[in-house]
Amino acid sequence: MRTVLSCRGVLHAFLLVAVTASFACTPDDSPPEPGPASGGTAVVGLAARPTTVLPPFATSAFDGELGPLLYLGLNFAEWGDGQLRYPKDHPLALARDWEIEGPRLVYRLDTGRYWSDGAQVRARDVVFTYELLGELGEMPMSIAAARLDSVTARDDSTVVFHFEAPYPGMLYDTGVGILPEQVFGGMSPGEIPAASRSAAQGEGAAVVSGPFTVGSWGPGDQLILVRNERSRVQPRLDRLVFRVIPDPAARLTGFRAGELDLVQVESYREAGRLAAADEAGILRVRQRGYDYISWNRDSHPALADPAVRRALSLAIDREAILAALDMTEFAEKAYGPYGSIFGDLAPSAPPGGDFDPARARELLSEEGWVVVDGESVRQRDGRELALELRVPAEHERRLDAAQMIQAQLAKVGVGIEIVAQEFNSLFARARARDYEAVFLGWQVGLDPDISFFWADPESPVNVAGYDNVEARTHFEAALAATTAEEAAPHWREAASVVASDYPYAFLWFFDFVWLKAGRLENVRMDPVGFLRNPHEWTVGATR
């Protein structure tokens, strides 16, 4: 496999494939295991539509969330004790078990799994999918093949992944949804997405292996899933509808009008109000986002000094800001690049606490930034400690938080000018490191590998240009480890070094919050995502 450098982001995927070929194998005549089907339709309100319908081409988080619904991978990830776990013989996995043999990972497929066109799922489908991933260059999902030498089919039901060397993410990287080779095997990588989208126009025309198949997905803003009658796991719903409503206010209006059963909400204040009024149930995907302010050490002499960066962080009262934003119930203060969902990988609070404006003033004075002649902004050698803080113009919460941070930093003698800028141009500016301070956020990945953000100063997502030899040494050791247990101390130490260097003001980890209508039941969410068990969802008779 060709090595690909990319970000370890979304590695769960969504696939719709065309019925374009017959297959000689005759499936088992036994019907799927009966499920307690209750019927009905659930409607989910989304901010954005899927960007693709194929696992190897997935680029958005929503693409990945749909994966286990339509297109099964070899394994199924669950979250527990601060890490991903991969139970064997999972009903939403194509393999019944797996075994790691040094640099090899052997999967034994469940021979009772069939595509929705009646063809049996075989090892050659897995080989085809991972060879395709290796041909996709800088597509995000191609990172799953980056450390592979090859994938081989030992027989129809046994597939072997040959890695360059053993590493903790072998199961993670082999969890991508598998494509049917009999459908796409004769196509070039460039032809596959168009073919799959064409198949998605007709109900049941997509070849899938999960509990759902495509009912319809036209040019409009609605994707309808229906039961895959060949799936061993049968949904209790008749239909699952995803309706794209970009405007947050319009999504809330639709929810309150009874048109939506589940909707992601951006206003924590509104979520709390609706829950208190018993108009909605609240569900959450815990700590999958975090907000930060990145300091560009090359833009201002003060920002090159870790003591000054520490002072800036100590001057920010995160607890007060979270309370003012009605986020206290849905967020926790950040002390570094891992949140508490990662257990003991997460850095602890700084000695003396995270908010200490008196100590912030002392540090600034010790570094020569002093108040001169009664001026409100500190100076050193005639240069004011005044910074431009760029914030996405579309992001109301960050704009509100920026104003509070501006007032808090003013109390320790730091001047902040807030500049609101359109997000895409702002992020391009951040990647080019053309800023003094920038207020952004990341979605938190569940693989503990954060080296792409911190180990390489040339990485496109290392917006702070961070480069620390000690941290890099630990990252390299973690990446060279053969097991998660062996890697963990190095991830922990690397995170501690990063946190103590204050390249960011790490602000808070926050939950993704969803409002649920009373008629929708059996919905389970966890840090992996919001679509963990739609096959088990049920709805009442009325909205």
CA-CA gap between termini: 51 Å
Fraction of residues in helices?
25-40%
What is the count of DSSP helices, taking H or I runs of 4+ residues?
Answer: 16
Looking at CATH, the homologous superfamily of the largest domain is Periplasmic binding protein-like II
Major β-sheet profile:
11 strands, mixed
Q: Can you characterise this structure?
A:
- With 543 residues, the protein is of the alpha+beta class.
- It folds into two domains: 41-252 and 517-539, Periplasmic binding protein-like II (D-Maltodextrin-Binding Protein, domain 2, 3-Layer(aba) Sandwich); 289-510, Roll (Dipeptide-binding Protein, domain 3).
- It has helices at 61-65, 67-70, 123-133, 170-173, 181-184, 192-199, 248-256, 268-276, 306-314, 318-324, 357-366, 396-410, 423-431, 451-454, 469-480, 484-501, and strands spanning 41-46, 78-80, 83-85, 95-101, 104-109, 148-155, 158-163, 212-216, 222-227, 239-244, 262-265, 281-295, 331-333, 379-380, 383-384, 386-392, 415-421, 437-443, 504-516, 520-521, 538-539.
- Strands 1, 8, 9, 10, 11, 12, 13, 16, 17, 18 and 19 form an eleven-stranded mixed β-sheet that branches.
- Strand 14 (379-380) and strand 15 (383-384) form a beta hairpin.
- The radius of gyration is 25 Å and the shape is globular.
